Amino acid sequence: MNEYRRTHTTVSLLNYHFVFCPRYRRKIFLKSEVEQRFKELVHEVCAELNIEIVALECDKDHTHLFLHALPTLSPADIMAKIKGVTSKKLREEFPHLLHLPSLWTRSYFVSTSGNVSSETIKRYVEQQKKRG
């Protein structure tokens, strides 16, 4: 979670906490098989996108994802892929969800998390000019 990820051109530490809900706050996760399949699909999507899942949990009418991502994907890209794949597959596999035009609301919550506080970074940046 607090490990820097390296590619040929970047070093990054991007942790995102997402929360999102089904349309009309439907309690779709009361059925354990829906929750289980949702988690499997999220794992598949994240593996494909090279995103590490730090934590993933569902309540009856919303889900929390804590993800460790690379800078090549924006939070919007991540949400679009996860919501798109899970909506399509869950509605195909569970007939009681088929009547919904889409499974998820368009909105979501996202925040970032790292191993240093915003205040620490602000102080560090402000002190850069004084180093010379």
CATH topology: Alpha-Beta Plaits
Number of helices: 3
Helix content: 25-40%
What's the CATH superfamily, by name? Answer: Transposase IS200-like
Order of helices and strands: EEEHEEHEH
Task: Report on the biggest sheet.
Answer: 4 strands, antiparallel
Taking strands numbered 1, 2, ... along the chain, how are they ordered across the largest sheet? 4-5-3-6
Q: Quick one: CATH class?
A: Alpha Beta
Weakly predicted, low-confidence segments: none
Share in β-strands: 15-25%
Helix- and strand-based class? alpha+beta
CA-to-CA gap between the ends?
34 Å
Rounded average pLDDT: 91
**Rounded radius of gyration (Å):** 18 Å
Multimerization status: single chain
Shape: elongated
Q: How many separate domains?
A: 1
In short:
This protein is an alpha+beta fold. The chain has helices at residues 32-49, 75-93, 118-127; strands at residues 5-6, 11-12, 14-20, 52-59, 62-69, 109-113. It has one domain (5-131): Transposase IS200-like (Alpha-Beta Plaits, 2-Layer Sandwich).
Break the fold down into its secondary structure elements and pairings.
Layout: E1 5-6, E2 11-12, E3 14-20, H1 32-49, E4 52-59, E5 62-69, H2 75-93, E6 109-113, H3 118-127
Antiparallel strand pairs: 1-2, 3-5, 3-6, 4-5
Helix pairs in contact: 1-2
What labels would you give this structure?
132 residues, alpha+beta, Alpha-Beta Plaits, 4-stranded antiparallel β-sheet, two-stranded antiparallel ribbon, 3 helices, 36% helix
